[in-house]
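Z., the sequence and structure:
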Amino acid sequence: MVALIIASVVALLLICGVAVAYVTGAGITLAYFLTDHAKYLAIAPQRMFASMDVFALMAMPLFIWAGELMNRTGITRSLVDFAMLLMGRFRGGLGHVNVATSVFFAGISGSAAADVAALSNTLVPQMERQGYDKTYAGAITAASSVIGPIIPPSIIMILYGAIMSTDVAALFAAGLVPGLLLALALIILNAWLAWKEGHPGGKKEDIPPFWPTLRLALPALSLPAIILGGIVFGVTTPIEAGALAVIAALVIGGTRRTISLGDFLTSLQRTLFLMGSIFVILAAGSLIAYLMALAQVPEAIAGAVQAADMTGYKYLILIMLVYVVMGMGIDLMVALAMVTPLLIPEAIAQGFHPVQLGVLVCLNLTIGLITPPMGGAIVMVSTITGSSYWALVRRLIPFMIAEFAVLILVMAFPDLTLALPRAMGLL
């Protein structure tokens, strides 16, 4: 009955257009009253502050700001041109370019939203002009945006690291191979669909000249190597790497004279807005974890798991199914803050590595960006391009299958996530 009341209130607030962060806070506060734990709300400010007083979280606004600046300095355009130079001449070439650009952009921003916003405005119209169906162009843009939070640097991995006290550098290194596997799966699928549906290849006159394109793209292409290399080899902390990305974006924009004071202020305002939402969600998540602890929910979960003999991969599959369902209808930051402290400690106790679990959780939730009924990436593409939401969903089905196949592969073979951080001495 309590759960039904809370769900009804949350649904009503969402229908009224209240922001997700505030809905989450209101829902958990109501839960304290309905479960007769209201007296513990006196310690709520301390719990919320403790959840945000995490050193690793300082890197998050810097990478978000770097992504915002990249979108306003012409760097995205240079990355698209470089990807076009590499893959644009093949059949379905602009689809390959879309995926490749997401890989390059992921190594700078770590944000699916930044990827979707950039490519929906630049590459989708270009694909449509070349003869692609607009819905397909939007679908592959949404699908490739999933790569952004998996290839380091990753904003969602920073949040997971803060919640579970896991080394962010190890998470970054562990996400590289799964992110590249996602890109490979999407490129193979795009090639097959291009052959099946007769997608056009790039025209010779559309391929940009080699040296000017390379010269403009090199600063952006060097950033992922500098950021990731500095973090995993201990030269820089994630926070210093984020600051380096911001400075590089400003230098590139200033050198090219493609950023104005208005762009600078808008990017800063957007970053502050996003960080405010994230921190409110994180604060609400800390109160959820505290309420669950008061109600001894983690102990109940551990007892139920043992009683049902849900150990090893059976428990891991159960966790993945929970995240799949949550990813379909809940904001990924909310799902991460709510569920991770409850389910992941038991998996770690059963012998699964926290870094492998972090990559699996982040990949699973990020795929939720392209799964209905919520599908944040689908909503963004639909809004920007004017495509029908459900038409995009139908086009996305093969891409969803491919990405879930990568998730299963990464789950079945832990070395796909753990081999690289081990080789770098991070584990």
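The radius of gyration is 22 Å. The first helix runs from residue 2 to 15.

Let me know what you think.
H.
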